[in-house]
Amino acid sequence: MKLLVVEDDAVLGRELSRDLESHGYEVVMPENFDTAEEIVQKGEVHLVLLDVTLPGRDGYEICRSIRRFSDIPVIFLTSRDTDMDELYGMTMGGDDFVRKPYKMPILLARIEALLRRSYPDAGPEREVLWQDFRLLPAKGKLCRGGREVMLTRQETLLLACLFARPGEVIRRVDFIEELWDDQVFIDDNTLSVHMTRLRGKLKELDAGDLIQTRYGQGYLI
């Protein structure tokens, strides 16, 4: 699936594009925001990630323009955080509204859910691949060598974070922030419980030592 990223912060845009590409998406990020409608109209992308605050026209105006000819899914990305901003985004034709700074696993889950609803016949669900592991986030399933284990939502998010940043030490506080959304907050003690349970399931795939602990720092694979 190909995603259009309309973001005026070049650094943030590059980081977002890198993260999306690491999870199997193709990314189009135009320098000229006025070409966004043209790209959509050509049928070159499947979903739009649209910043609200842009130079010249804002994201709301671009979305309203797109809605004149396309029902492509649109997710607003914005630092505006009031309910009225979200309501206005929906009235302009947006499908979802994600506040900055966003948590990448949560954003990925929302993208995946919106793509599944919008393209029900598009094929198999997105997979996260790392070495000989295959993670199916939508099903909460981890596969390796013909075997599989079922993961909870939190375990799936933890593993997705690690697979996305192999060799990098991820701090405990970063994990806690990644697992935060409107419904769940994982504190430090609960994080340890989830990590222990995840390691126990990895043992069933002969990978009990996959996740390493760096005391005083965090975890890595």
Automatic annotation (TrEMBL):
Residues carrying 4-aspartylphosphate: 51
InterPro entries: CheY-like_superfamily, OmpR/PhoB-type_DNA-bd, Sig_transdc_resp-reg_C-effctor, Sig_transdc_resp-reg_receiver, WalR-like, WH-like_DNA-bd_sf
DNA-binding region in chain numbering: 125-221
Pfam family name, one: Trans_reg_C
Keyword RNA-binding set for record: no
Residue ranges of every copy of the OmpR/PhoB-type domain listed in the record: 125-221
Ranges of residues in domain Response regulatory: 2-115
Record keywords: DNA-binding, Phosphoprotein, Transcription, Transcription regulation
CDD domains linked to this entry: trans_reg_C
Function of the molecule: May play the central regulatory role in sporulation. It may be an element of the effector pathway responsible for the activation of sporulation genes in response to nutritional stress. Spo0A may act in concert with spo0H (a sigma factor) to control the expression of some genes that are critical to the sporulation process.
Protein name: Stage 0 sporulation protein A homolog
Species this chain originates from: Blautia hominis
